[in-house]
Predict the structure.
Amino acid sequence: MVETVNDLNVELALKGVAARPDQPQHFMRVQPVGAHVEIMIGEDQLIATDNAVWLQEVGKTLYPPVIYVPQDEVTVPLNRLDKTTHCPLKGDASYYAFRDDELGWAYENPFEFSDALKGYMAFWPNKVRVVITPQ
């Protein structure tokens, strides 16, 4: 039975969930997609990987799931923008563009409890086409 915030943090961690230590009701789960993922913009393939992960976040609401891909497997040059935002669950996000169009973000130095995102990036779903092929 969960009686304290610390108890809740421990229970969530045992289930593979990362939670904010100060507000464990704001949490996320990261798990492998388990399929081949391609991210396309027009005819340009940004990445093809078997190492993508789903992130499901619960905070003020249940947010739509997001696919994160290994940043070092992106095959086109992305330009880092002079833009950052802060998430109290994940840390500071840096933003990236392809051909001067902002396409995605990464948490390059996420909080310790969110380190599953280190080395991964995500793309705006309205700007790219995601192709998921079962393995």
Notes: The mean pLDDT is 91. The CA atoms of residues 57 and 111 lie 15 Å apart. The longest strand covers residues 79-87.
